[in-house]
Amino acid sequence: MRKSRIALLAFTLAAATLSVPTPATADPAVSVTVNARAGLETVGDAAIGVNHAVWDSQLGTNAVADLLKNAGVQTMRYPGGSYSDIYHWQTNTAPGGYVAPDTDFDHFMAGVQRAGAQAMVIANYGTGTPQEAADWVRYANVEKNYGVKYWEIGNELYGNGHYGASWEADDHADKSPAGYATVAKQYAEAMKAVDPTIKIGIVLTTPGNWPDGIVGGGDAGTWNQVVLSIAGPSVDFAILHWYPGGSSSAEALSKTAQVTDAVWLARRQIDKYAGKNLGIALTEINTGYGQNTQPGALFAADAYASLLAAGVFNIDWWNVHNGIGTVSTVGGHTDYGDFGLLSSASCNADGSVCEPPLNTPFAPYFGLAMTSRFVRAGDQLIRAGTTDPAIRAHAARRANGDLAVLLVNTDETASRQVSLSYAGYSPAVTAQVHTFGNGDTAIATGSGSATSVTLAPNSLTTLVLRPSGSTARPATPGRPVASSVTAGDVTLTWPAGAAGLKYEIHRQLGTISEQWGETTGTTFTVHNLTPGTRYTANVIARDGSGRVSWASPPVTFQTGTPTAAPCAVTLTDASDWGNGYVGSIDITNTGANPVDTWTLAFSWPTAWQQLGSGWNGTWAQTGSAVTVSNADFNKVIAPGATVNVGYVGNYQGPNVLPPLFKLNGNLCTTR
């Protein structure tokens, strides 16, 4: 919660000592590849959201509602971050806080309805009761027929002091994750007794962000483990918040690379502890740099697209209005350090700097507006990649046969010439082009080429393409399910489609699809996979005329390790503090002969993990590869014996534990 190289060629003249450079040459064109055969997740009707707060006097006004509608906002969250745990909807009060006039629930819903959006409402857990929450559901959906579908139970309750930091109001005697989960379950039962159709979310910690991984005193596990185990079966979605930070544009924009792993870890926790499929909503997000200038716009569009591709169904920017913060100059423009999408017209303490007129959109507003031009409800994200790390590429296909491509040029000073190619899709020659550049005050719309575009520095560009031929295709297959996953095999099964179809099974390799095989049935077993590897696959249907469907929703799974191996390794996260942990590794000799002198090797799965220190051996890291060699006292491992080594691992993002270990070059069983 927040409130507040050009290559320089030279030649030497034969009779002179002066070296004269030739004119600078342009960078080679950047290649962007869009692979329509590599399907990702589908966008829902609650995807693009914002936060509203009862201390904002503009909440629910026509001017704000119209601005949010024009930006394509689908969801509005209320009553605002930590205020949610002190706010009482019946009296429109927040003891200890400020509630602006005309910000009650009905005023909020009037703005929601005017914008054509829907509500995400946070029930007061901190100082409220299950009955108060149930009464709110009754008022909203029975008495007023507002049809509020999504309800959260509290906000950031891990900040109630249980882990040391205390910013969230919580009057319950038991502030542990078990205490929250037990009472949250009572909330869910009381609220669904009034309206069984509502969807209820519980508060989780975001993988790689404090206090993820920490086990508090007396707890049976981490916050997520305990909360999901107790309350998970009774609710419908998990709530995450993400403020990734960053002290520069480059650092802040690099954080979106963490999305895939963060969502992957969250889903694994949900599957393991809740035992059911829960949706994931990211109900607070903001950048750490350039909150009101172009880096914020670029981050917003890149982050929303990345999160939607990973299957997050709702993303809510913090905040509509927030107020002036630390003023700086970013990319040649004044940044007010304001976490709001729209200007509050506030001034700094000495009155030397004031924001623009009330409700003037800041750059991230246009980042959300560009996202809504890129994807709409029902669109499916597909793979897109680029040869230049400064360029981010996202793509989505539409039910009517159109394709959209979002391009983000993160280079603050240089433009890029981009050449686009398409696998599994043939675009018409001309595309509709939306652009938003540094310092712009509106998104410009025109036309251009479907295969070539120049990206201005620090800019957002969306191409909307029409197909060049017929859009007739077989129906898209349903999502495959992975079962019988071993170190080298997996069986994929999917729902049957129309008669006479043949199904192709494709693995995603970035922007390339590798066909694993085809069948006329609805199940396929893949062999010869690599142990300890994460795979994403799709199914595509082909009819007798050769027409090919869109790719199915994806299935992602990770292979295991051999059950029979000369060694076994158990890695335990023994103690975690949010950006580092103690890793304890047991190495067992499962062979028939002693191991005399050994080296254990593994690799970090992500770029933001690093070895800090280690013990019971000699530790080293080169790139992502880590090794530990024996000490004198544990040089020999007898058959059936186990030795222990340990390390401190540091991380600045989702902490994906290494899945594979090799002892003297031999792959071990990971237990």
What does this structure look like?
The structure is a single chain. With 671 residues, this protein is of the alpha+beta class. The chain is 17% helix and 34% strand. A 9-stranded mixed sheet has the order 19-18-21-16-15-14-3-17-20, with helices on one face. The protein has an 8-stranded parallel beta barrel with strand order 4-5-6-7-8-9-10-11, surrounded by 7 helices. The longest helix has 18 residues, at 177-194. It starts with 9 loop residues before the first strand and ends with a strand. The model is unreliable at 2-26 (pLDDT under 50).
Short descriptors:
671 residues; alpha+beta; disordered N terminus; globular; CBD2; 8-stranded parallel beta barrel; 9 helices; 17% helix; polysaccharide binding
Structural class: alpha+beta
Q: What share of residues is helical? A: 10-25%
* Overall 3D form: globular
Uncertain residue segments: 2-26
How large is the count of helical segments?
A: 9
Q: How is this fold's topology laid out?
A:
Blueprint: E1 10-12, E2 19-21, E3 30-42, E4 48-51, H1 62-70, E5 75-78, H2 105-115, E6 118-123, H3 130-143, E7 150-153, H4 177-194, E8 199-203, H5 223-231, E9 237-242, H6 249-254, H7 259-274, E10 279-285, H8 294-309, E11 314-317, E12 328-330, E13 333-335, H9 363-374, E14 380-386, E15 391-397, E16 403-409, E17 416-423, E18 427-436, E19 444-449, E20 452-455, E21 459-467, E22 481-483, E23 490-493, E24 502-509, E25 512-519, E26 523-526, E27 534-542, E28 555-558, E29 567-576, E30 580-589, E31 595-596, E32 599-603, E33 609-615, E34 617-622, E35 625-630, E36 636-637, E37 642-651, E38 662-663, E39 666-667, E40 669-670
Parallel strand pairs: 3-17, 4-5, 4-11, 5-6, 6-7, 7-8, 8-9, 9-10, 10-11, 29-40
Antiparallel strand pairs: 1-2, 3-14, 12-13, 14-15, 15-16, 16-21, 17-20, 18-19, 18-21, 22-23, 23-26, 24-25, 24-27, 27-28, 29-30, 30-37, 31-36, 32-35, 32-38, 33-37, 34-35, 38-39
Helix pairs in contact: 1-2, 3-4, 4-5, 5-7, 8-9
